[in-house]
Amino acid sequence: LLPQLLLRRRPAPAGAFALLARPASSASGGLPPLTTEIHPGIKRGAFSQLTDADLSAFEAIVGGDHVIKDADEVLSYNIDWLRICRGQGQLVLRPKTTEEVSAIVRHCNKRRLAVVPQGGNTGLVGGSVPLFDEIVISTSRMNSLLSIDPVSGVLVAEAGCVLEQLDREAASQGLMMPLDLGAKGSCQIGGNLATNAGGLRLLRYGSLRGTTLGLEAVLPTGQVLDCLTTLRKDNTGYDIKQLLIGSEGTLGIITKAAILCPARPKSVQLAFLGLDSFQAVLDTYRLARRSLGEILSAFEFIDSESMRAVKQNLGLSCPLGEHSFYVLAETSGSNETHDREKLDGFIESVMSMDGCATDGTVAQDAGQFAHLWSLRERIVESLLVDGYEYKYDVSLPLADIYRLVEHMRTRLDGRVIRTAGYGHLGDGNLHLNFTTPKFDAKVLELIEPHVFDWVRDRRGSVSAEHGLGLKKSQYIRHSKADFAVRVMAEVKRLLDPNGIMNPYKVLPDE
Amino acid sequence: KYIHIINKADMAASKGLKILVGCKRVIDYAVKVRVKPDRSGVVTEGVKHSMNPFDEIAVEEAVRMKEKKLAGEAVAISVGPPQSQETLRTALAMGIDRAIHVEIPLAQLEKLQPIHVSKLLAKVCESEKPDLVILGKQAIDDDCNQTGQMLAALLDWPQATFASKIEPSQDSKQLRVTREVDGGLETIDVSVPAVVTSDLRLNEPRYATLPNIMKAKKKPLAKMSPDQLGVDLQPRQEVISVEDPPVRKAGAKVESVEDLVGKLREKGLVK
């Protein structure tokens, strides 16, 4: 009985089925192009080649079953989630313990073999897959939850634990993971930390830089860095874990993490509004902060083009009519009556304010709640159906956010299937995407570096939360001073003298 | 017994059928239900509740019949604790005209059974005189699937349960109801007044839009008590214990094909 209802009313949870729902690049005819073909300027570093002796060494460390050499199997580790990159890695290793990771990395450092740490492989900037023949070190087997303390809220887990599963475990103790993103069914906590993932609720719970209390990592020399404390406050020396958080796997492989989990809210409400101008979106946001204040837990906006994509490409239905913009405003609190009252107050203000929301609904049950969120969480997936997706993720002053979308839409008129803008309005973070049936170098030329220059001129960030990976490393100076970049290079040289840890990523090629 | 036979012309002239819709407040279907440690029931405190999904379908059908001008007035009724008012507000926000709340004190709530609810509804029908009562076929907390049938028996009205379609009959004098039965679909003609219970495929309930959510606050919501209706809520059943279903035994994960074959051999499943 119940499964029937669930099938009827709720689309599949975005994260869990995201990989399955990925189109098999059918529009572009099979495999994505080799990354080295898209970026012919990048030369392979002075790394060694894999030998049989290396293979024997790895087999001795993880066991023959977890050394993957079969071309078909290895292929999936070489292709990123967006299917815009294809590497030429020949080997995947799947360690189970920190000791195994350490032994592997020590060997690779001694032999000067390049490696790529890989978690859920859901990154969007080509940072988690090889370019040439780097060895993929997958954390997927390191998936044990080590402990949850219901009193302090501290959760300690191995890097390969899937975010959604950790959230479920936390739920059983009345807690929740402090971050949530569309990839939750596949992404792993190690990767979340390595990319300092933001997500839908950063507005309320802050970034991983604040909620990560400790971590354990294997440095590029193979040494184990144990900063795995569960203490809320520990001001003893330099906070080295902050270097690893957001380093996108270029300074080491995170193997364990201690996360501070907030209490799971007893009452979560969701309002979904239809608006007809971006100014109305901004006005609604101001209203939301004033009337919902401390219970506001998410504020996302979606433009009409993005909504069209989820409707056309995934067949999802939108309960509101056609509007230029849609807003999801979510509240999380400890008292349902109190929260509903606040939400009612917000809605009344929104409806009585001139030029504000003209249409909207409030989720009445869990099914409607999940469906409304899927209209936002599955946008990325829906755009992939068009064929090839050019993805941009920028931070801008709020007033400029949609100006960029309109500007680029005009610039690319007639050359793309669509220009979609949506994102974490509350964080000033725009997700800007263009789609074409196949990869089109001329379209890429029209987009880059123009879009990054536009953002730099308004002192925004060329990568708000997705990171630099491979795709944006040469634009780092658009948002960071040159000297800062040189200091970063020093740190990289210090921790990774042979440059084996995820080369070609994050820092520009110098 | 089957007193009025209303034809379509009459329906239009006489402002359409009057519909009474039942709504029950239940634990939200997406919530993981937990058994109380003393095994006397399930945990409801602090747990998300919402309208029984089959009742949402019933409400939606009533609103659609109004939109098609088959019905003139739609009234929602809920038998339950004070919080049932929220459930009724949802019904009002979907397009119901007014609501009736039969409030049950907390002490008697746990022992409330379909027999009591159907008697309460029957009493309300005596005064409200609806032409059609639509109830959800069953509630997802007790899965009883009894209230609609008992109500029809008490009122001595025809019943059409598990409806997947409701429309005027060929001669417009009755209602033609398609029922979901084990063997497929059964279509019957029922005279009004009648009791119909909704099944999953009857319709897909709408989202309550903001203007309607605001309007719902001003729609009439009348309160009644079981005493006023003269119904005795003496329980006829006693719940002895509530337990979790037996835990599934864990399977074993194998790391390789060799492992798998080895385990299958161990269990004597392959030679």
TrEMBL record, chain A:
GO cellular component term of the entry, any: mitochondrion
Entry EC no(s): 1.1.99.39
Entry annotated with the keyword Lipid metabolism: no
Domain FAD-binding PCMH-type: 85-264
Listed GO MF terms: (R)-2-hydroxyglutarate dehydrogenase activity; FAD binding
Coiled coil, from the record: none
SUPFAM superfamilies per UniProt: FAD-binding/transporter-associated domain-like (SSF56176), FAD-linked oxidases, C-terminal domain (SSF55103)
Record keywords: FAD, Flavoprotein, Oxidoreductase
Keyword Flavoprotein tagged: yes
Reported cofactor(s): FAD
A Pfam family per the record: FAD-oxidase_C
Catalysed conversion reaction: (R)-malate + A = oxaloacetate + AH2
Protein task: Catalyzes the oxidation of D-2-hydroxyglutarate (D-2-HG) to alpha-ketoglutarate. Also catalyzes the oxidation of other D-2-hydroxyacids, such as D-malate (D-MAL) and D-lactate (D-LAC). Exhibits high activities towards D-2-HG and D-MAL but a very weak activity towards D-LAC.
Similarity comment: Belongs to the FAD-binding oxidoreductase/transferase type 4 family.
Name of the protein in its database record: D-2-hydroxyglutarate dehydrogenase, mitochondrial
UniProtKB/TrEMBL annotation, chain B:
Any one GO molecular function term: electron transfer activity
Protein's UniProt name: Electron transfer flavoprotein subunit beta
Residues annotated as domain Electron transfer flavoprotein alpha/beta-subunit N-terminal: 39-233
Record localization: Mitochondrion matrix
Predominant cellular place of this UniProt entry's protein: mitochondrion
InterPro entries documented for this protein: ET-Flavoprotein_bsu_CS, ETF_a/b_N, ETF_b, ETF_beta_N, Rossmann-like_a/b/a_fold
Function, in words: Heterodimeric electron transfer flavoprotein that accepts electrons from several mitochondrial dehydrogenases, including acyl-CoA dehydrogenases, glutaryl-CoA and sarcosine dehydrogenase. It transfers the electrons to the main mitochondrial respiratory chain via ETF-ubiquinone oxidoreductase. Required for normal mitochondrial fatty acid oxidation and normal amino acid metabolism. ETFB binds an AMP molecule that probably has a purely structural role.
One example of a Gene Ontology biological process annotation: fatty acid beta-oxidation using acyl-CoA dehydrogenase
Origin superkingdom: Eukaryota
Organism: Macrostomum lignano
